[in-house]
Sequence to fold (292 residues):
Amino acid sequence: MPEQIIGPTSHYYYSQRLKLHYVDWGNPEKPLAVLVHGGRDHARNWDWVAQALREHYHVIVPDLRGHGDSEWARGSEYAMVEYVVDMAQLLAQLDSFPAILIGHSLGGGIVLQYSGVYPEKVRKVVAIEGLGPPPHMIDQQSKHAYERMQLWITQMRDLAGRLPRRYKTLTEAVQRMRETNTRLSEAQASHLTVHGTNRNEDGTYTWKFDNYVRAQSPYRFNVEDAKDIWGRITCPTLLFRGMESWASDPDKDGRAKAFQQVKVVNVPSAGHWVHHDQLDIFLRAVQEFLNN
Fold:
């Protein structure tokens, strides 16, 4: 069997009493590169990128808590601080510093937070739309904390009664995946769905992620704290944005100024999932960034 089609091995570690999963693409003697997925995604979301990087890097890809094959949290503990402590625990166990960190969306936020908290432990960091809500979206949130708390409590109660949607066939689930991101090819959507669903006893399929990960924090995104952490990142930083996404340009909205060494890449004909929508462009930019 050709080596390039051999998949990763499966492993587990513990953080805050949760059993969390990650996959390992081999070559442990190479520099460590950790790829971190976004909300309601899973580790195998990165397979195409991992296959391109595995020859030259020791690629590790975790399932975030509540996602993929990782355990679900009790009490809806899905705040950024929990994700970052999970990342710190995984990297401490891998003990291969300085590491390369690459993240998408929520995962982008996690790798940037970690890189600012432990700048000496990160060689280079890449984030796809990982800066949180753009300024105009933050401005649209209620200025009153009690209103945001009321909304959050309502969300929690609604999620408690929300049953996971069941799909009669895998084809139905694939179709739903393509509705979420219309740019996905049939092959991409099928791959993401196969690895992102569980088959139930009655033969139906449900997504692996915990519905509680859908909840939005009642606390407004703390821009000043974020900039303080971003400003501590000493390694080169590469920020991606899809030009057809909801995210704003970090150069134009001023957020890129918080970083010491930063390059922003705006990718045409790409939405929020830049690494899916324009894989070749993404890989060329990342490989050039890592090689320099």
Observations:
- The beta strands are 9-15, 18-24, 32-36, 58-62, 99-104, 122-128, 197-199, 205-207, 237-242, 262-267.
- The radius of gyration is 19 Å.
- DSSP finds eleven helices and ten strands in the chain.
